[in-house]
């Protein structure tokens, strides 16, 4: 579970306790969130894992099943939580989240307003950025979705710095109690231009706003509205390309019958049926190549800064 040290920052308890949330890591594309319960077990393809054997171990431990298989127990960082949370809506991923936090200038102590909450992927990272003295107020018009997000923030230990409310920001705007107090506002709405005038009233002088939209037509209309009260209006599309790095074998194209390949590196040899040796035509090498499941377009991020009066 996340713990807040008022004198320092948001951090994790070093040792796993009964009731903690852990990320069970099998491989980079197979993880799940599990709440530790002393009398419970986890069953997967590697065997049966007893929760009681996890208690007292530090996060990052390698634990074994009854069959000798193993998994890693990782702390539920915002990055990992983004990969395992329940998708109630389309979510923002790490590349967009990192860009948003940087351009909104979110630092410890900030007050941030967010609409809508959705699955809470961005909200979790915003909470870590403002901790321990800041606060995130997030709004969603869907009551059940807001309730599920509230439960998730309880599980991850963030409920003390995240407040979830049910409110239609497009129709009602942000509550007046935040007028002139917000350091940053984030909008993820179908019609963000309807909420921009209210967002402008919430921001401090020189405060920043970000609007996430999947379609460029939404961006165009939002930018038209932003020009009334905002300056330094910019739109970005963040595209992330990941690579797989692994060891593999490749043909030794420069080899010859004498085993010389034009370098001082040793050349492996294989034994012929007659007992003599010949240079192996393949060599081991570490290769990097683009992942086959690289994500493309997620959405457009439009940033703007409130005009100084």
Automatic annotation (TrEMBL):
The keyword Transferase applies. Keywords: Methyltransferase, Nucleus, S-adenosyl-L-methionine, Transferase, tRNA processing. This is tRNA (adenine(58)-N(1))-methyltransferase. Its EC number is 2.1.1.220. Belongs to the class I-like SAM-binding methyltransferase superfamily. TRM61 family. It is found in: Nucleus. S-adenosyl-L-methionine binds at residues 119-122, 140, 168, 188. Residues 250-284 are annotated as: Disordered. InterPro entries: SAM-dependent_MTases_sf (IPR029063), TRM61_C (IPR049470), tRNA_MeTrfase_Gcd14 (IPR014816).
């Amino acid at each position: 579970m996340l713990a807040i040290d008022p004198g320092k920052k948001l951090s994790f308890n070093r040792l796993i306790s009964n009731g903690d949330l852990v990320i069970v890591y099998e491989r980079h594309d197979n993880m799940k969130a599990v709440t530790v319960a002393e009398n419970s077990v986890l069953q997967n393809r590697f065997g049966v894992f007893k929760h009681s054997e996890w208690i007292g171990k530090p996060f990052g431990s390698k634990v074994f099943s009854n069959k000798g298989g193993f998994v890693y127990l990782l702390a539920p960082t915002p990055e990992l939580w983004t990969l395992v949370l329940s998708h109630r809506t389309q979510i923002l991923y790490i590349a967009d989240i990192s860009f948003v936090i940087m351009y909104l200038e979110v630092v410890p102590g900030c007050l941030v307003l967010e609409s809508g909450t959705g699955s809470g992927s961005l909200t979790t990272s915003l909470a870590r950025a403002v901790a321990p003295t800041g606060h995130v107020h997030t709004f969603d018009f869907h009551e059940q979705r807001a309730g599920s997000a509230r439960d998730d923030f309880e599980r991850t230990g963030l409920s003390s710095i995240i407040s979830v409310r049910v409110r239609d920001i497009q129709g009602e705007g942000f509550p007046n109690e935040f007028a002139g107090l917000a350091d940053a506002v984030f909008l993820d709405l179908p019609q963000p231009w309807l909420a921009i005038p209210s967002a402008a009233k919430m921001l401090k002088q020189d405060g920043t706003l970000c609007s996430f939209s999947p379609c460029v037509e939404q961006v165009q209309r939002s930018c038209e509205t932003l020009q009334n009260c905002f300056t330094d209006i910019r739109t970005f599309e963040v595209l992330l390309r990941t690579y797989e790095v692994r060891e593999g074998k490749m043909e030794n194209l420069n080899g010859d019958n004498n085993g010389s390949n034009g370098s001082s590196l040793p050349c492996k040899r294989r034994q012929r049926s007659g007992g003599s040796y010949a240079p192996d035509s393949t060599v081991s090498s570490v290769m990097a190549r683009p992942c086959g499941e690289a994500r493309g377009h997620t959405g457009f991020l439009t940033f703007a800064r409130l005009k100084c009066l």
